[in-house]
Amino acid sequence: MAKLLTEMLKGTLEGIILASLSGRPAYGYEITARLREQGFSDIAEGTIYALLVRMEKRGLVDVKKVPSEKGPPRKVHSLNAEGVEYLEEFWRTWSFLTERLEQLREGGK
């Protein structure tokens, strides 16, 4: 099941990260920790960082460097208007897919 879950997560991870950021801004490790608390324990921290960079380049999140007690400044990510729009589309698509999958599961009713 873990392998199938990992494969299914690949297509939805951007939406999951944006949903996490819709509550409040966060830096990469903090996002990873939040997701792990919610049961996404198999998500590698490096995967989160790579997706954050991609989302930043696509203009879905804003980044602010904040001083850290240890080491270099942290990049705190927050959802911007483009990200909110993308997240809304993600939830619409997710609802569409889950409804269709549930129909298939129930025998195509």
UniProtKB/TrEMBL annotation:
Source species of the chain: Streptomyces buecherae
Signal peptide: none
TM annotation in the entry: none
Domain of life the protein comes from: Bacteria
A Pfam family this chain is assigned to: PadR
Name of the molecule in the record: PadR family transcriptional regulator
